Amino acid sequence: MDSQIAEPDAAARIASIPIEEIDVARPSLFQNDTIGLFFDRLRAEEPVHYCRESYVGPYWSITKFDDIMAVDTNHKVFSSEAKLGGIAIQDMHSVEGALELEMFIAMDPPKHDQQRKAVTPAVAPSNLQLLEPIIRKRAGEILDELPIGEDFDWVDKVAIELTTMTLATLFDFPWEERRKLTRWSDVATAAPETGIVESYEARREELIGCAMYFKTLWDERINEEPKNDLISMMAHSPATRDMPFLEFLGNLMLLIVGGNDTTRNSISGGVLALNQSPDEYAKLDADPSLISKMVPEIIRWQTPLTHMRRTALEDWEIGGKQIKKGDKVVMWYLSGNRDESAIERADQFIIDRKNPRHHLSFGYGIHRCMGNRLAELQLRIIWEEIHKRFSRVEVTGEPERLFSNLVRGITRLPVRLHAR
Ligand code: HEM
Fold this sequence. Notes:
The protein has 16 helices and twelve strands. By secondary structure, the protein is α+β, with helices and mostly antiparallel strands. It has a single domain (10-419), classed as CATH 1.10.630.10. It has a five-stranded mixed beta sheet. The relative contact order is 0.17.
């Protein structure tokens, strides 16, 4: 048995592990939700911590808010380059047969900056405003189909459906085929061990299919009047219309993947958080104008991406520890978002915080989430539509969590709806 899965007396067992043996890379700790206890210890005893041995090799953990900011905003020393390992604790290996997409999230300047600039207009607030009524109408239609007073799985029936619906709306993707987007998003992030694809070759084939599909949509829209979907916006923008093929596909995939699991798990995480904090749920019920403050709080609380990783390009001191050139450095956003020295009552979910955007879930610096306003917009619309229809989304059983050290995911959440 995994000695770091500490059930039932988790706190006592975790407190007895020698600090140098703590390894927070284990996906099981996120799945059984004991990870917070490990981060509490690291922040208190050794906020910059070196793990010598793990299934992902040696790595540094950065666990406090200010230290994470210092790393995230110092891209000259801490690189995101795919060829050095990329942005996740597990190295991005170059595998024969895999399709190596160009994604600016795993690039350093100057290429990162040029590519990011090319697609930024697609998620500008003024453009997103145009999408709001369409997202709202479709979200309402999905919620109106749900059963009242009966148990069902919120993740399957709502979180996945709403996220897919939103993606399809953003791209103005053929509505009946919208589950293709969910599939491509899953395939793009899948390794063969997950069972989602059989091999890297199979993955490559599917992604080429995805590219061809998008190419057809692109070619149609470039010859039409500009519209307000992301494909049309990119096809007509001087900054993006002439992208080479792998750049076009890579950046499209980044827009699809970037907003998929993250938003899905924020939708489920919000329901769970409100049920765990009944006083906060009562506040929301009494005053739905709090939704715009609650949304960033949900994103902090859930922290849909637990970490981003960097590789040190030179020796660097942080928190009194000497990081060496080539070392793997992991910024644990999930831990920084619970750091009491930066966020008041960080271990509580509070929907009317004074400064709710003061969190790390979107990262900082040059790679700060490009879709952050889009993510907030989607969640705001969804919660406004939920509030109009249901006085309560009641969690009726234990949530099940994803076996992953990167995506903080909820895979099943039994609920029952109470009509307003
Ligand atoms: C980057 C989180 C939604 C597109 C990132 C990063 C994080 C993140 C942590 C990396 C930041 C860093 O390295 O400093 C989230 C969360 C979301 C969300 C928590 C939802 C709650 C979205 C959406 C889109 C999106 C809806 C779609 C447009 C991107 C892109 C990047 C990015 C394109 C790369 C930015 C760059 O490298 O310059 N996101 N994201 N994200 N995200 Fe999001």
